[in-house]
Amino acid sequence: MKDKILDILKSSRDYVSGEDISSSLGISRAAVWKHIKGLKEEGYEIESSSKKGYRLLESPDVLTYKELKNLLTTNYIGRKIVYLESTTSTNDIAKEYAEKGEKEGLVVIAEVQTKGRGRMGRRWITPGRDSISITILLRPEISPYMAPSITPVLAVSVVEMLREITGFEIGIKWPNDVVLDRKKVCGILTEMSAEIDVVKYIIVGIGINVNQETFDNEIENIATSLRKYSGKKYDRKAILSGILNRFERNYELFKKEGIGPFIEDLKKYSVLIGKKVLISGINEEYEAEAIDIDDDGALLVRLENGDVKKVLSGDVSIKGFYGYNSK
Amino acid sequence: MNLKEIKELIKLIDSSSLSEFHLEKDDIKLQIKKESTVKIIKDEKALTLNKEEHISEIDALKEERIKDKEDENLHLVKCPIVGVFYSSPKPDSPPFVKVGDKIKKGDVLCIVEAMKLMNEITSDVDGEVVEILVENQSPVEYGQPLFKIRKV
Predict the structure, then answer these.
(1) Is B29 exposed, middle or buried (0-12, 13-18, 19+ CB in 10 A)?
(2) Are A148 and B84 inside 8 Å of each other by CB?
């Protein structure tokens, strides 16, 4: 009922009388008043006037389904949202839902992550309400070996949307970082549970730095936000819904045609191609020149001896990025 | 009984299926044993030998069957993607499983990473880890066996 009242207030830019609300919903004016009070407690700024009724001044900056549904054009992604003020890690929560058989398209959103994770257990810091931290649950009927390409498909979706909204030159640092001003503005952590021939589920965690004004010393050189770069505050709801809308389209295409249709975009947005890079593998570290993205979405590098190598794993550093300076 | 009669008798017995013939008449005691009998005995020996061989063959088959049965209980967990094998969730944490660990279906055995996709490989059977076939942080191929699990 509270949500229906909110819908009425949202659909009108002007005052709506308490009587109109009570008659259209078939509830008493006292009940209307009670629900309005509840909405105010959730952070909605609602002006009440005894003569004119109620008017919605401002919605809180929260990433709830209530706030996102009118912006979503998706069929299934984000049609169920688990919104948490604070949690350990959205990937962990999404995994729990996945194990219990939750359907594809669930999005877990948290304002604060106390144990946000990057790859290999590295930390991902999620301060409240300044960033976007979500995890999408997917259950594609594809072979597990195709699954790693989902990360670049999502990266392309994020870059397209962020470029559209901000106009900034945002790129992809292969394969899972989205960079702005040589710093990380978005990180993607994809996890899969699979057996030899079956993908049980895939969860894609995305962290986007939107409105942080400062970062800890520890990550100052590595991370940036849209606001820190431009001084301007951005609308998280527009960014998140835009990414989900874009990603669902791209994901549908990916399931039909694989990574092929995205290769040109990956090349276009790549910040690595043509650069000298340092590949830090697990047991080795070598310098090379990033030359191309191959048909699988893997990075191709040319070694000093001229050999071309396909990079499937390991960290890729480029001079000048993330505070890294090569000799 | 004259010699001729005896010869006749021998012929008769020879063509018969009898192997031995005893005759006592008056003061004559005749005993005829067919050579073939001996042969047959020889054959029987041979047969016995063969039987022994057979028995050992059967034993071998039985053993194989037992082994097969053991193999049936051994389950290989294979790798679904090309990537890098990690035995633990973080570089400095203990491995997901060790040889001898009892595991349940759905337990995480390792992570295989490809293009930053962390693929948790779970066991599809209940059992015991018999062997880990891949070294930590080494590259793995699609379909490569990673773990040998004895099913319970």
Answers:
(1) exposed
(2) no
In this structure, which CATH number among 3.30.1390.20, 3.30.930.10, 3.30.1370.10, 3.50.50.60 belongs to the domain A65-269? 3.30.930.10
Looking at this predicted complex, what is its ipTM? 0.74
To the nearest whole angstrom, how far is the Cα of B139 from the nearest Cα of chain A?
A: 9
The model carries a pTM of 0.78
User: Whole-angstrom Cα distance, residue B128 to residue A282?
Assistant: 29
Question: Looking at beta carbons, which residues of chain B come within 8 Å of A152?
Answer: 115
Q: Average pLDDT of each block of 10 consecutive residues along chain A (327 residues)?
A: 90 89 91 92 89 90 92 97 91 95 96 74 68 96 90 96 97 94 94 88 96 86 94 95 97 95 96 92 84 91 93 81 63
- Does residue A173 contact residue A272 with C-beta atoms inside 8 Å? yes
**Token pair for residue A186?**
């978005």
Q: Which residues pair with B90 in a beta bridge?
A: none
Which residue among B80, B118, B139 sits closest to A190, beta carbon to beta carbon? B118
User: How far out from the chain centre does Cα A143 lie?
Assistant: 24
Half-sphere exposure of A168 (CA within 13 A, CB side): 24
